[in-house]
What we know:
By secondary structure, chain A is mostly helical. Chain A has seven helices and no strands. Chain B has helices at residues 13-16, 75-82, 112-118, 133-143, 152-162, 166-169, 182-194, 212-225, 238-244, 263-268, 273-279; strands at 25-26, 32-33, 35-46, 49-60, 64-68, 92-100, 103-104, 119-122, 200-204, 230-234, 247-252, 256-262. The chains are: A mainly alpha, B alpha/beta. Chain A: This is Phosphate-specific transport system accessory protein PhoU.
Amino acid sequence: MSRTEYQHQLERLREDVLEMSDVVCQRLRRALEAYERTDEDLAQRVIDGDHEINQLYLDLESDCIDLLALQQPVAGDLRFIASTFKIITDLERIGDLAVNLAEYTKRARRERYPDIDIAHIGTETVLLVEDAMAAYATNDADATADIAATDDEIDSLCERASRIVVLDLVDTRGGDDALLEDVSRMLLTIRDLERVGDHAVNIAARTLYMVDNDDELIY
Amino acid sequence: MATDHESEPTTNDAQLITTDVQATGTGRNGEPTEPVVTARDLDVHYGAEQALNDVDIDIPEHRVTAIIGPSGCGKSTFLRCVNRMNDQIDSCRIDGELSFHGKNVYDEDVDPVALRRKIGMVFQKPNPFPKSIYDNVAYGLRVQGMAGDVDLDAAVERALRGAALWDEVNDQLDSSGLDLSGGQQQRLCIARAIAPDPEVILMDEPTSALDPVAASKIEDLIDDLADEYTVIIVTHNMQQAARISDKTAVFLTGGNLVEFDETPTIFENPADDRVEDYITGKFG
């Protein structure tokens, strides 16, 4: 393979990762929509579509391995492929979390927690993932610090929401199995959204390393 | 050569070695190391053509230093300056300073033969003499008058063990070196180079004529050699430089040393955009 073709392959890899992130973010938005509307059909479509994201992940993983094995990249190219290899794992995990959210939709009794705005937290996390991928797309190292800071705000939202659930449990006497199920399901929903934000920060951290060889955000 | 240094050899090993040199880095064990080979403002011309331009470099001891760069960038010229192999090229003119342990090797009182005993060389193509394996290794000791000072059998065995060849040839030491495989021949040449117990081993693309298995053995050997010797290797194979070297010097067109740093830094995050372009294949 010529070095020109190699450069084209690197460009295609970035484009394919961005396409994967578009699919993942779309699934997350649909899962949130299904959760908000208690739309079980839409939730099921998100669940059924996860294999597509898994296949995108496997294809991109294979592309990365081929480039590493056949082109032995170094310097900026190496950091790009190594970062991409990690970022596609984060995207695949976000896809899994969208599936979790879709599964919660089927059994959620949202009326129990009117003060918890899952839609707001969810939208913030999707925007954060999109911002992280925009930084990756444009080699924007400066944006990565803002992404980490915004994730701290999302963590605070999740912490407040979790506190509402726990206080409700404490205040409720004679709780039954259904209550415990509501509590655990809501806490898992909040935790999963918080983890989406963490994956966005991972993407930003790898982008910072990719662009500036700076591992400050990785650990 | 413009500088005529072929005068009476008067230097012995002790005179070649001085110790008033600043430490320049850390060795493989993290301890500070002194530079063994140092270049300052080194210019080399072949006639009107400039092969090296104002090169400054400090090569640390007991580490593997790789020199990479495109064809014609001066990397082999630099290597050949270190033990004065360029002396044999009439049109070669050397300005500036190239020091071994702080002593300019181009000073008039330096004996090139004594210098080459301390700075051995291995070439691109295996070049054993048409002699027995034993005599190939013993040759250097004999011509340098060292054979009477040492137990020759022990020295040959030590050199062959050092070159990871002893186990393969110890029962055929009287066989011709030319009967060995290409990889074995190159290790025989390494044994010949280390037999006089040098401090520095220069290698000019030592695996480019070998198959991957033989090359792999040489690479393993180079890693082991750095425990006892300072290794400077010119290679066109950047992956090889990345695999086996501790430090990498990148020469680019015009004989300019553009960047010299720890090998992981060169291959993960080079400071100079031209180096990035070269090692990623965007510039040839």
